Amino acid sequence: MRPFFDPEGVAVVGASSHPGKIGYEIVKNVSKVKKVYPINPHAKEILGIPCYPSLSTIDGDVELAIYALPSKHILEVIEECAKKGIKSMVVVSGGFKEVGNEDLERKMVEKAKKNGIRIIGPNCIGVFNAKNGFNTFFQTNFELPSSGNLAILTQSGTFGIGLLEELTPFTGVSKFVSYGNKADVDEIDMLEYFKHDDETKFVAMYIEGLENGRKFFEKVKEVKKPVVILKAGRTSLGAKAASLHTGALATNYEILRGACHQYGAILADDFEEFIAIISMLAMQPLPRGGGIGMVTNGAGPCVMAADYIYSSRHLELPSLKLNASSLPSFAIPSNPIDLTGSATAEHFIMALRELANSDIDIILSFFVFQDAPLALTMQAFYDAIEEIKKHEKMLIGVAIGGKFTQEQRKKMARHGIPVFKEPSVVIKALEKIVRYSKWRQRNENSGS
After folding, report:
1. Non-local CB neighbours of 444 within 8 Å, separated by 6+ positions
2. For the chain, which ranges sit under pLDDT 50?
3. d(Cα 419, Cα 408) in Å, to the nearest integer?
4. Which residue(s) pair with 38 in the sheet?
5. What CATH superfamily classification does 142-283 receive?
6. pTM score
7. By CB distance 3.0 to 4.6 Å, which of 63, 196, 289, 415 could disulfide with 7?
8. What is the CATH number of domain 1-121?
């Protein structure tokens, strides 16, 4: 799998000299970090890079070919790849199983396997390696996250590029794979790769269909890293849309949910929850239990969170014996700790220190950043937060507001603390993370 993420040379078959065309944008993106060979018999150069009429005329080494021509040319290009010794292909183009052209897709895979070639796609945007910046995308005007510990697998390129941009201000990624119709390389292959990838600590997946569910979930368990799944095509209407998008086969959602519980995958219900779970796992240690300690300088969202915790199976808001002398004199020393609107950043740190020394597993802070006592002292919070983080509690925040609040959310993220807007999303995400943690502990204790 290495040539997909760190190829020595890259050929773009179907390179275009016209800005805005898929073949042009791929060349532009690849050329930023890799030696690229544009294949276009009708152009002398693209972006100042010499063009080649065919793969056979390239005089350098090529480890990866990106295919961006109409689907009808795929078989002859695979032959050219075989002669050139290219063993990896990203087939960006559509026009295969998703439009009823199953026969061509089958022949493509057969010819590739015969020649020892692995294919990602077709009908995808390919790969991104955050460590070296290499990507096979044809999008433009997009932001990419920095290097991190999250691997993303997605059948939808549109969903994938959006997810990358959503994560950019908050967390980094290790690798990204958009695999479309997954005619050859599929999620099982990629999970096996990420199992051994030291840069990847957990995996997030958007899937539309599974062809071999049992083998997939056995691989999820074998990976021994958190796997977060967002599944589309849950209804008959959604399944029909998925089949038209990537040719995905229908998967019974309730059976999938049961398999996730049994094999330890974390199943998100929607995109917001998916982002929340990812952010928490990327930035914070895995909690061992579901005991939550809360602190706030504004009660509303905190009260809502308590309601959601009440309905949870795996979370609780335990009574805590707190040292009132360690808290501001005006604070209510219970769980939640109410600091009132008079709270400064120093007061928040006092409360967080007290919670960090208690028996709870998760610290949930509700910030009204707009309150002047807190707004004007936030630097003191950032100066002291590393001390709190040493206690290895999961630290999560909730804050609602406009520009100033968004600025503080980004600053919090730079200090490894995810801050969200909606209490229900936070509690649902924590519920699923704690359930996974308990599953993991049971399996570790049983030796399986």
Report:
1. none
2. 242, 244-245, 247, 249
3. 9
4. 12
5. Succinyl-CoA synthetase domains (3.40.50.261)
6. 0.91
7. 63
8. 3.40.50.720
Element (H, E) at 63: none
Strands 126-129 and 45-46, how do they pair? unpaired
The CA–CA distances, whole Å, from 395 to 15, 146, 352, 417 equal 47, 22, 9, 6
Q: How far apart are CA 33 and CA 133, in angstroms?
A: 7
Superfamily of domain 286-442 in CATH is Succinyl-CoA synthetase domains (3.40.50.261)
Helices marked H in 247-344: 253-263, 271-283, 299-310
* Spatial distance between the Cα atoms of 75 and 103, rounded to a whole number of angstroms: 12
Residues recorded for the chain: 448
DSSP state of 94: -
178-187 b/e (C-beta count within 10 Å ≥ 16 → b): bbbbbbbbbb
* pLDDT, tens digit, 9 for 90 and up, residues 364-383: 999 999 999 999 999 999 99
Question: Residues near 316 by Cβ (< 8 Å), separated by ≥ 6?
Answer: 290, 291, 292, 309
